[in-house]
């Protein structure tokens, strides 16, 4: 194939100097005669001349040209070049490079294509910059901990797949094992799919108390959670890596918060890639499941970085094992609880509200909130329940409406813990404080507190 590259100087040649060997032969038309001589000395075919004069194109066998590429700085000059090329070859495909400010959106020529320089930068340069930043971050993270240090990786009270996969990745990144770097929580894993993940991937999470922190100089790392989540001080914190929005200020030796990412597992996948570490099947499976579960298979709250991470991990992971994690056995009592709750569903202006009453397993609440979105006409699922001495409220929405996290935080954060993302959020409020504020826990109270903010 024959290509015609039109430019002011030799800059386009620098970009395309290896192009002929792979794609076809390139003829350069360069306005600057000195630059044209340099290109010819490099062995490339090159003509020099005014880019907007007919005589320059009469020297070229345009019938042998399959594609023209234009890179000139002046917008008016570029338009004159395109007009000249169309005079000689109306059917010639033309591609031109431009800045965003010069871009024209109304183009009727189907064989004329525009590529923005900012898009080229985003596609090719931005990933390299991010990789360099991540390498720097990995060096910083490793410098936080000495060889003889014991490290606790602390997760939220009921760790989810994203938190578990991220903790496993941090331990791998540091070259540690379970004995020197245990994964810990103040609560317990309760959801069946998360328990299946621990069992199938042979991951141990230890339950600790606040008094167990910092014993004998133990270091503390938090993943997929931030210090304000915990209602008691944690003492000195060495590391926090999370994808949730920052709630209030806190202090840590190292912090990496990326609220625009769909999963913390994506951040740790970038760390591993920056460190040139190929994940084991076990680790890749954990990270894949973390990304998949937190983004609903890249459909909710995801970023292009999540897709990049998922694509990288996919060949290394065990997809069959993920299917087994996602479909654990559902005990009969949980199924009965879901049935009773659905019979009490209230639907107001596209908002499905359910209060399940007392329930032993908290995971049923977000599961039911997810299920509500499958009901015809429902854009919001608001489900609450009593788990011990706590009121748990889970909210899900279709993603293109108001922020669920902001609404829950506005109503309940002063009473307990509340927040999350645009399409998914959670509130946990001590039962006594909830009653002091609202009098009782019921569908009516939850509906009256939330529906007005959701629908107006």
Structure description:
It is a single chain. The protein has 456 residues and is an alpha/beta fold. The protein has helices at 11-16, 19-23, 33-41, 54-58, 75-88, 117-143, 161-173, 192-201, 264-274, 281-295, 304-313, 319-326, 332-342, 364-372, 404-412, 431-438, 443-455, and strands at 2-7, 25-30, 45-48, 67-71, 94-98, 112-116, 151-154, 183-185, 205-207, 219-223, 239-242, 254-257, 346-348, 351-358, 380-387, 390-397, 417-420, 424-430. The strands form three sheets. The chain has a six-stranded parallel beta sheet, sandwiched between helices. A hairpin with a 2-residue loop joins strand 13 and strand 14. Helix 7 runs parallel beside helix 9.
**Helical content (DSSP H or I, runs of 4+):** 40-55%
- The number of helices is 17
Distance between the termini: 60 Å
CATH architecture of the largest domain: Alpha-Beta Complex
Features:
456 residues; alpha/beta; Rossmann fold; inorganic pyrophosphatase (n-terminal core); Diaminopimelate Epimerase, Chain A, domain 1; six-stranded parallel beta sheet; 17 helices; 18 strands; 40% helix
Q: How would the blueprint of this fold be written?
A:
Layout: E1 2-7, H1 11-16, H2 19-23, E2 25-30, H3 33-41, E3 45-48, H4 54-58, E4 67-71, H5 75-88, E5 94-98, E6 112-116, H6 117-143, E7 151-154, H7 161-173, E8 183-185, H8 192-201, E9 205-207, E10 219-223, E11 239-242, E12 254-257, H9 264-274, H10 281-295, H11 304-313, H12 319-326, H13 332-342, E13 346-348, E14 351-358, H14 364-372, E15 380-387, E16 390-397, H15 404-412, E17 417-420, E18 424-430, H16 431-438, H17 443-455
Parallel strand pairs: 1-2, 1-4, 2-3, 4-5, 5-6, 7-8, 7-10, 8-9, 10-11, 11-12, 14-15
Antiparallel strand pairs: 13-14, 15-16, 16-18, 17-18
């Amino acid at each position: 194939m024959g290509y015609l590259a039109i430019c002011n100087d030799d800059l386009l040649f620098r970009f395309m100097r290896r192009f002929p060997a792979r794609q076809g032969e390139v003829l350069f038309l360069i306005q600057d005669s000195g630059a044209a001589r340099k290109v010819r000395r490099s062995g490339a075919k090159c003509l020099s001349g005014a880019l907007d004069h007919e005589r320059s194109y009469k020297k070229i066998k345009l019938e042998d040209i399959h594609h023209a590429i234009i890179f000139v700085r002046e917008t008016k000059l570029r338009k004159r070049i395109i007009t000249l090329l169309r005079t000689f070859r109306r059917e010639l495909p033309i591609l031109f490079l431009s800045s965003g400010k010069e871009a024209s959106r109304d183009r009727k020529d189907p064989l004329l294509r525009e590529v923005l320089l900012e898009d080229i930068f985003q596609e090719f340069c931005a990933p390299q910059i991010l990789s360099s930043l991540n390498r720097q971050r990995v060096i910083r993270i490793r410098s936080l901990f000495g060889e003889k240090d014991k490290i606790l990786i602390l997760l939220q009270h009921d760790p989810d797949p994203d938190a578990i996969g991220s903790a496993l990745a941090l331990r791998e990144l540091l070259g540690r094992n379970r004995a020197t770097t245990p994964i810990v929580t103040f609560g317990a894993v309760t959801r069946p799919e998360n328990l299946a993940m621990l069992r199938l991937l042979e991951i141990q999470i230890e339950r600790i108390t606040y008094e167990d922190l910092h014993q004998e100089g133990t270091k503390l790392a938090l993943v997929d959670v931030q210090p304000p989540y915990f209602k008691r001080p944690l003492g000195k914190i060495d590391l926090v890596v999370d994808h949730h929005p920052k709630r209030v200020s806190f202090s840590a030796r190292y912090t990496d918060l990326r609220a625009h990412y769909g999963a913390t597992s994506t951040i740790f996948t970038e760390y591993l890639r920056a460190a040139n570490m190929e994940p084991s099947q076990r680790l890749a499976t954990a990270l894949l499941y973390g990304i998949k579960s937190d983004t609903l298979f890249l459909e909710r709250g995801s970023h292009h970085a999540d897709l990049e991470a998922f694509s990288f991990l996919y060949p290394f992971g065990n997809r069959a094992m993920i299917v087994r994690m996602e479909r654990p056995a559902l005990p009969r009592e949980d199924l009965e609880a879901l049935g009773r709750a659905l019979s009490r569903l209230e639907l107001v202006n596209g908002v499905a509200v359910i209060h399940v009453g007392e329930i032993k397993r908290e995971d049923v609440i977000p599961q039911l909130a997810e299920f509500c979105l499958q009901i015809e006409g429902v854009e919001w699922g608001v489900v609450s329940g009593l788990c011990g001495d706590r009121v748990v409220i889970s909210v899900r929405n279709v993603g293109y409406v108001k922020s669920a996290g902001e609404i829950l935080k506005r109503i309940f954060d002063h009473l307990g813990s509340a927040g999350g993302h645009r399409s998914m959020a959670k509130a946990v409020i001590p039962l006594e404080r909830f009653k002091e504020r609202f009098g009782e826990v019921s569908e009516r109270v939850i509906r009256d507190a939330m529906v007005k903010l959701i629908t107006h």
